[in-house]
Design brief:
The chain has helices spanning 3-33, 35-38, 40-71, 76-106. It is mostly helical. The chain is elongated and about 70 Å long.
Length: 115
C-alpha cells in the first residue's frame, strides 16, 4: 500500500480531532482576553490548552509518520514501537495539561476592583 491509500484514514482522524482542537483554541482565546478577570489561573489555562493542542497535533503527526513508514515497507513491530513512544509523550502532555487545568481552577482569583 502507498501512503496515499492511508490518507482517508488520516483525514478521518484529523476530522475527529477537529472539535477538540477548536475547543482548545477557543479556550486559549477566552483565557487571554479575560486575563485580568481570571488572574494567574488564565496563565495556567493557556498553558494547559496549548499543551492539549500540541499533544493532539503530535498524535496526528505520529499517525501520519506510522502510515508513511508502513507504506515504505517498515515492519509493523518497528512502526508500533515508534507509535508507542509518540503515545507515551502524548500521555505525558495530557497529564501535564490536566494538572495545569486543575491548578487554573484552584488558583486564587484577583480581588475585584474597588469602585
Amino acid at each position: 500500500m502507498t501512503f496515499e491509500d492511508w490518507l482517508p484514514a488520516l483525514g478521518m482522524q484529523a476530522a475527529m480531532s477537529a472539535p477538540n482542537l477548536i475547543a482548545c483554541a477557543v479556550g486559549v482565546t477566552l483565557c487571554l482576553s479575560w486575563k485580568r478577570r481570571i488572574g494567574v489561573g488564565a496563565v495556567y489555562a493557556v498553558a494547559a490548552f496549548s499543551l492539549q493542542i500540541l499533544g493532539m497535533l503530535l498524535g496526528l503527526a505520529g499517525q501520519a509518520w506510522m502510515y508513511k513508514m508502513m507504506a515504505s515497507g517498515m515492519s509493523a513491530s518497528t512502526a508500533g514501537l515508534g507509535q508507542s513512544v509518540v503515545g507515551g509523550v502524548h500521555i505525558l502532555l495530557s497529564l501535564t495539561a490536566t494538572g495545569l487545568l486543575i491548578a487554573a481552577v484552584l488558583a486564587k482569583r484577583p480581588a475585584p476592583p474597588q469602585t
